[in-house]
Amino acid sequence: MDTRPHSLTVPSDDDSPTFIRSELYEERETAGAGIAVFATAFIPAGTRIFCEEELIQVSDEFEQPEIYDTVTSLSEEKQAAYFGLAASSKSMKDVGWINDLRKSCEGEAESFNALVEAHEMAWSIYETNRFTLRLSSGEFKIGIYHKASRLNHSCAPNVFHRYNSRINRMTIHALRDIQPGDELNTSYIDICHPTAVRRQMLKGWGFHCGCSACESSDEMRDLRRKKIEDVMNKLKKREEQWESNHEQWTDKDYAKSVSMIERGMRLMESEGMEETDTLGYLLALAIRYGARNGRKEELMQWTERLVVIERKCLGEDSNEYDAAVELHRIAKEDL
Predict the structure, then answer these.
(1) What SMART domains has UniProt attached to this entry (predicted)?
(2) Burial of 211 per CB tally in 10 Å (0-12, 13-18, 19+)
C-alpha cells in the first residue's frame, strides 16, 4: 500500500460563499474574557458554524506601519470591524518605525501622537487575533477574521478552526455535540502539553488560561497530557530517523512506531482530543507505518477513522478529506 502523502490539491475557488450560522450562536460580553461566543441551539458534531473570508491577509514579516497601511486601505465597514476586535498584546519593542513615521509626517505633535497610537492599536489587534494560514501553494500567511476572532481559547476545545485553502475561507467546525448555553472555544496552541507548558505558550495572548483542563483538580488529566507530550516528542524523533534512513528500517522498527502511536491514540481518546491536529496526525502516521508492517485489518479501521475526523474537522470540500478518502480506497483494494 502506497501511503505517501496524497495532496489532491484542487484549484481554489475564490467565489465560495462566506456564511456565518448566526442562528446557532450569539456573542455576549463576559467577565474577564471580553466578548465570547455561546451556542443558542444544539450544534451536532461536524457542523460547519463559520465559513469566513478574512478582513486582511498579510505576510508574517509585516511590521506596524505595514499592518496599519493594510488596515486603513480597507472599506470603512471593514475598518470598523477590524478596530472593534480585542486588543491585549503589547506594542513592538522596536520603536525605530516611529522615527521613520515622524520623517514622513508633517503637523502638530498632538496629531502625530494620535497617529502613533492608531498604529499601535492596529498592531495590538493584529497580534491578539492573528490566525496562521497555509495557502494551497504551501506558503504561510497571517489572517484576521471578524467573527472567528471572537472565539476564546480552551485547552479542551469544542470547535476546530482551520484555513481551507481550496475555498479560501476560515472554517469552524463543532468537534463534538454542543448544547445550548455552552461557550464555543477553539485552541490557539498545540494542546499536547501539560498545564504549565500550555500556560507559558499562551502568554503572548495576554491571559492566564483558566479553562477546564488547566483548572482541573484531576492530577491524572495533567499526567495524561504529559504522557501525550512525551509520545509526540518521541514520534517526531522517529519521524526524523525514518526520513533519514527508512531503507534500513526493519519490521521491528515499524512495529515499535505503531505501538507508540497506538499508545498515543489511547491517551488522546481518554482526553477527548479527537481532531485532525492530534488524533488525525497519529492516524496518518499509523497508516504509513502499519502499511509497511502488514497491519491490513488495522489499516482499514485507521483510514475509516481518519475519514471521519477530516470530515468532522475540515469538511468534505477540503484537500485533507479527499486525501483521507483516497487512503481508505487504497486500503480497501489491498485487503
Answers:
(1) SET (SM00317)
(2) buried
